[in-house]
Amino acid sequence: xxxxxxxxxxxxxxxxxxxxxxxxxxxxxxxxxxxxxxxxxxxxxxxxxxxxxxxxxxxxxxxxxxxxxxxxxxxxxxxxxxxxxxxxxxxxxxxxxxxxxxxxxxxxxxxxxxxxxxxxxxxxxxxxxxxxxxxxxx
Length: 138
Description:
Elements: H1 5-22, H2 29-43, H3 53-62, H4 81-112, H5 127-130
Helix pairs in contact: 1-2, 1-4, 3-4
C-alpha cells in the first residue's frame, strides 16, 4: 500500500528527529542512540518497501535484527564502531529516501490539482464604468 502524503510527512519528520538525535553531541552517547532508535521504531508500523527497504533492513542488522515490534534496547558499548557507522548511514539514507518520496508525492498532488480560479476582484476596464462620478448624484 502506498503511504499517503500525510504519512510520508510524518515519517520524514520522525526520521529527521532520529538523525538529529544521533548528531546531538550535547547528549551522552547512550541517550543519543536510545532517542534515535525510539524515533526510528515509531516511524513504521510495517517494514517499508522499494528503495526504503534496504536502509531500513540495515538499521535492524546494525542493532542485531530484533523481532519487529519488540522493545529494543541496545547498549551503545555493545555496538562496534562499524555497526555504529552502519546504523548512522542507514538512518540518514532512510531519511533521504522518505524525504524524496514526500517531495514526489507533493509534486504529484500539485500537478493533479485543478487550476485555481483567478482571485475575485475588480474586473479590468475603465474605472468610470464601475464607479459613478461624485458629481452625478448631486
